[in-house]
Amino acid sequence: MNKKIKGSNWPQLPEELSNISITPTDARFDAVRSNYFRVGNPKLVIMAATNLQVSETIKYITAVRKKTGSKVPFSVRSGGHGMTMSSVNDGGIILDISQMNEVTIVDEKSGLVRIQAGALWGDVAKSLNPYQLVISSGDFGDTGVGGLATSGGIGLLVRNSGLTIDHIIGASLVTSDGECHWIDEKHEPDLFWAIRGGSSQVGIVTEFLFKADRLVTQDKNFVSPVVVQKVKYLSKKLETFILKWQEWANSSSRRLSSILMVTLNENGDYIVEATNIWAGSPNEQSKDIFEKSLNLERTQNQEQQTMEYADLVKAPHEPHRGQQPVYVKNTLVENFNAAVIDQIEAILKNSFVMGIELRAIGGKLNEIKSEATPWDFREATGFVAMWADKNYAQQAQKIFTLADQDGLGVYGAYSSDLSEKENSKVWPRPETRERLKNIMNASDSEQIFDQGRNLNVKK
After folding, report:
1. How far apart are CA 338 and CA 336, in angstroms?
2. Distance from C-alpha of 419 to C-alpha of 400, rounded to nearest angstrom
3. Among the four residues 96, 117, 122, 175, which has the most C-beta atoms within 10 Å?
4. In degrees rounded to 5, what are phi and psi of residue 323?
5. pLDDT in tens, 88-144
6. What distance in Å separates the CA atoms of residue 400 and residue 327, rounded to the nearest whole number?
């Protein structure tokens, strides 16, 4: 039976979507209206489980916009963690593909894996673990596959494995006309190029074919091991510490990735909490690297353990109620220098700033040619993100000027700023922007996919 959307002049829902749609009067609405960062108030949520249902949803939003003559919001949600907050909206339609979450081993020996876009990365890691396979992905296990895998993917193993997008070798894409395409290097290569870092501007990816990695293990107790070291430092001179940390990380094996969270206490001291991750079983090299980390600054405490990668990124399956009260801005840098660190120190003096996150990246990431994907920062070895109270979003935008001055640009999936100015920094190279615009104009001339990261090609 076709369903009419209450309080609207929208067309009736087609029979294919009626049974999978949720409206505000439905008892299930509160459970599906929001993501992790924002409470949504849509008129309709469609819980698609097949490519056909995704296709019919695209056709329906097209009909709604045509009948109303307005750009009714249309959001796509995979895992619902999205820091950009664009996977939910007010007054529009949310297409939820979280039920499209299968993980299939295609070829265990070569590491080929099919993963549907609605899966969570923590669940993916759990599924791959028995086969000694890993895909470096988001830090948080509840992060969805689709949003991250079309944006970049600076994961916990980035220096060892590169970005998540670097492991995509094919994908199933539903375009604005409702057609489903298989894309790879030989089949519609422009679309394949665009979905590996161009976000969801050209369509909805419903499934990926990945080539996974293996981690080196000499311990029969671990299948895909990582060694995790956590160190808490107390520093008086942040510049001295960061420069020493950078040198330590860059001179270490690329099997090491390192993340810092920096805060400023009431005494003017910098509290630095480091998470250092070694890809594979511990050995003499990892032992030496971790010992050297303890000499970077005065330590308050440290701990170290070997675990399965799947346990490191385990998915907690938290309900999404817009509970994360943060606003995030970021930039990538070729290296951390005095000018960058001076700005970090100035940012930390603001009371609404919760902390500054720093990452040593590079390694495998730097080995991919810039033109291979739309992700424009292959020369980057560092990443800086500001975590601020979301009630002070405007102030946060004003004080975080790193991307304008010393940064290379912005990692789109890790920024809460959806302004046109910010989006231009996600793809700063003119040739990247031009190619993306041309592909977008050809594949989505009506701008059906205009939420989230978008270059506003017709604006």
Report:
1. 7
2. 14
3. 117
4. -80, -15
5. 999 999 999 999 999 999 999 999 999 999 999 999 999 999 999 999 998 889 999
6. 12
DSSP one-letter string for 125-142: HHHHGGGT-B----SSTT
CA distances from 217 to 109, 122, 213, 220, 307 (A): 16, 21, 13, 8, 11
pLDDT tens readout for residues 285-315:
999 999 999 999 999 999 999 999 999 999 9
Query: Which residue type does 170 have?
Result: G
What's the chain's Rg over C-alpha atoms? 22
Cβ atoms of 125 and 310 closer than 8 Å? yes
Residues contacting residue 422 through CB under 8 Å, at least 6 positions apart: 410, 415
Phi-psi region of 62 (alpha: psi -120 to 50; beta: other; left: phi over 0): alpha
Identity (one letter) of the amino acid at 132?
A: Q
Q: Is 97 helix (H, G, I), strand (E, B) or coil?
A: coil
- pLDDT at position 457 over 70: no
Q: What are phi and psi of 435, to 5 degrees?
A: -65, -40
d(CA 436, CA 431): 9
Residue identified by tokens 């439905």 is 26
DSSP β-ladder status, 93-96 and 74-77: parallel
CB neighbour burial string for 266-280, b if at least 16 within 10 angstroms, e if fewer: eeeebebbbbbbbbb
| Token pair of 422 as six digits | 């910010």
Q: List, in order, residues 6 or more apart from 120 with CB less than 8 Å away.
A: 79, 101, 141, 142, 143, 144, 145, 315, 317
Rounded to whole angstroms, the Cα distance separating 140 from 316 reads 9
Q: How far is it, in rounded angstroms, from Cα 212 to Cα 167?
A: 7
